Amino acid sequence: MRVSRQRTSMSPERQYLVLFRGTSTTRSSILMVGTALGQPRSLDPYHK
User: Its domain of life (predicted)?
Assistant: First the structure.
């Protein structure tokens, strides 16, 4: 029961969000990575 409780209360996604919120540098880097993954062509002009 404890394991299930911890899973619901502290999900991996939630931990990541907390980490990103705690550090602004990681947050900016993650945002850049996310955008790059979403639109690598538009972001990377050299990738043409």
Answer: Eukaryota
Give 3-state DSSP helix, strand, coil % of the chain, rounded to 5.
85, 0, 15
Q: Note the pLDDT of residue 13.
A: 74
3-state secondary structure of 7: helix
The pLDDT value given to residue 26? 67
> What's the distance, Cα to Cα, between the start and end of the chain in Å?
53
Q: What pLDDT digit, counting tens, does each position of 13-28 carry?
A: 777 667 656 666 666 7
C-alpha span between 18 and 30 (Å, rounded): 13
Q: What is the 8-class DSSP label of residue 10? A: S
